[in-house]
Write a structure and sequence with these properties.
This protein has a domain of 37 residues. The chain is built from 2 helices and no strands. The radius of gyration is 15 Å and the shape is elongated.
Amino acid sequence: QPQQQLLTAAFKQPFAPESERAKAITKSFGMFIAADMRPYSVVENKGFKNLLKVLEPR
């Protein structure tokens, strides 16, 4: 019989801001905005939020 996951296990800690992964994500996001002249509000779109959940489900 499967066991239920603890609620605390469902919430992973975010990357530390100084981590290499966090820096790479920030740089890539900046390029995404700047290269295509996208508005900063793109982060509020459902599609963008879904993409981030798929890429990094934290």
